[in-house]
Design brief:
85% of the residues lie in helices and 0% in strands. With 242 residues, the protein is mostly helical. The chain has one domain. α2 packs parallel to α10 and α3 runs antiparallel to α8. The radius of gyration is 17 Å and the shape is globular.
Length: 242
């Protein structure tokens, strides 16, 4: 990797961490397209979820106390089955095709978040399974599977603290299942573990800054700016790889 590429990856990890701390999710929407273009889609996905593991281990215990495991269990089981299917495309298709697919999915997921759309009717077990299943496919293939299940959980209109805890539990399980799948597919190497070890302090440091900024300021303006920035990154990625 060139020095410029190293700087680009570091900036992407820092901004992704800030986004994770500020919005609670969405780091992959920023990091995966950038890391995939500087490195490769497979390597970008591995680094993304390796730096997430310590964060998940930190956030999960309090979330398990306040969340509803029985509610999110159907989603987690659906993720278990569909993440490996999505990964099949990552290891089978040309990197350029995956880069374009990742960019298209980023645009669609950002549009879903920005629209404020919610599923109609009662959020029953089948809605939970479908949301988790779709998230697993998207996450396995493109690493940006958060928005579908986040949208479903927010549509339940639970208490804010319960909703956040349920999102953290599901996101944590998705990250750990994704990392396990990467290991099974042979995508994880010792060198990537070393790189992620150096990247984690950047990620967690900017996650802390993002959370601090959220507590001090309103989220309206920054949320819109972040979504716009993510769409621009995805569009540029598509143009480069066409």
């Amino acid at each position: 990797m060139s020095f410029l590429g190293l700087i680009g990856c570091s900036v992407a990890i820092a901004l992704g961490g800030f986004l994770r701390g500020f919005l609670g999710f969405g780091a992959a929407l920023l990091m995966v397209p950038i890391l995939s273009n500087i490195l490769t889609p497979a390597v970008g996905l591995v680094i993304m979820y390796l730096v997430e593991v310590p964060t998940v281990l930190y956030l999960m215990p309090p979330a398990l106390k306040k969340g509803e495991v029985k509610v999110v269990l159907p989603m987690i089981l659906a993720l278990l089955f569909t993440i490996p299917i999505g990964f099949y495309f990552v290891v089978s298709l040309e990197p350029e095709i995956i880069k374009i697919f990742i960019s298209v999915m980023v645009i669609l997921m950002v549009a879903l978040l920005a629209s404020g759309w919610k599923p109609k009717g009662v959020i029953n077990i089948w809605t939970m399974i479908m949301g988790g299943g779709f998230s697993g496919l998207v996450n396995g293939a493109a690493g940006v599977g958060g928005p579908p299940f986040v949208t479903v959980l927010m549509a339940r209109n639970d208490d804010a603290e319960v909703t956040r805890s349920n999102i953290i539990i599901t996101m944590g399980c998705m990250s750990l299942l994704t990392t396990l799948t990467q290991f099974v597919y042979g995508m994880m190497t010792f060198n990537l573990l070393i790189v992620s070890t150096f990247a984690f302090p950047i990620y967690i440091g900017f996650t802390w800054l993002g959370a601090k900024y959220f507590n001090q300021s309103g989220s309206g303006y920054f949320r819109k700016a972040a979504l716009l920035m993510l769409i621009l990154i995805a569009l540029i990625t598509i143009v480069i790889n066409i």
